[in-house]
Amino acid sequence: MSRLILVRHGETEGNVAKILDTRVPGLPLTERGAAQAKTFGESLSAPPRALFCSAALRARQTASYIEAATGVPAQVLEGVHEVQVGDLEGRNDSQSHDIFLDVYHAWHDGDLSLRVPGGESGHEVLERIVPVIEDLRAKYLTADASGDILLVNHGAAMRLIGRTLAGVAPPFTTNNHLDNTETIELVPAADGGWDCARWGRFTPPFSYKAAPTQDDPMG
């Protein structure tokens, strides 16, 4: 069955410095991030049916390496950029990480009304991303479709989508950050919902309890 594969972008300068980097266009890939993106594209067992990415520079660069490896042109989609952290933008101190993670974890626990000062609420994040994903489903993931759809986007946004659409629950969703170019794979379910077939290194059931970490909080 065809899947929607959400791909986290390659490593950036912000990831290395643990900077809360969410505004578009954002920071570029590092040399290591470019190599990760190239390896990801070359390791695909088959070219995707379609390839999309967010407008952020790191996502566009990652998608460009996948395009080069597969020959599938990358298309930029509006509205699927990273969770916006508002007043915390550009900061990398532990206090800022704690403020963001407290709000982010509350979203996974069901309180989507909270927001980082000057940033988005969980409701606002989902209101801009979910319609895009459902549009991709309607266009590309019909019952007779073949081939996967790749969407290069961002770790915190991806994990919230996996939590919301596929019902993967915390603490798995909050403790299991995604490394650069790791994926969340979503499969359309017959009832109109989604099943999660992969979350980073893990496959169902998603009961693995990793210790929480503040390394790369956007992962």
Could you please describe the fold and organization of this structure?
- The chain starts with a strand and ends in a 20-residue tail after the last strand.
- It has 219 residues and is of the alpha/beta class.
- The protein is globular, with a radius of gyration of 16 Å.
- The mean pLDDT is 95.
- The chain has a six-stranded mixed sheet, sandwiched between helices.
- It has a single domain, classed as Rossmann fold.
- It has helices at residues 13-17, 31-43, 57-70, 94-108, 122-140, 155-166, 172-175, and strands spanning 4-8, 50-53, 74-76, 149-153, 183-188, 194-199.
- It contains seven helices and six strands, in the order βααβαβααβααββ.
- Helix 2 runs parallel beside helix 3 and helix 5 (122-140) packs across helix 6.
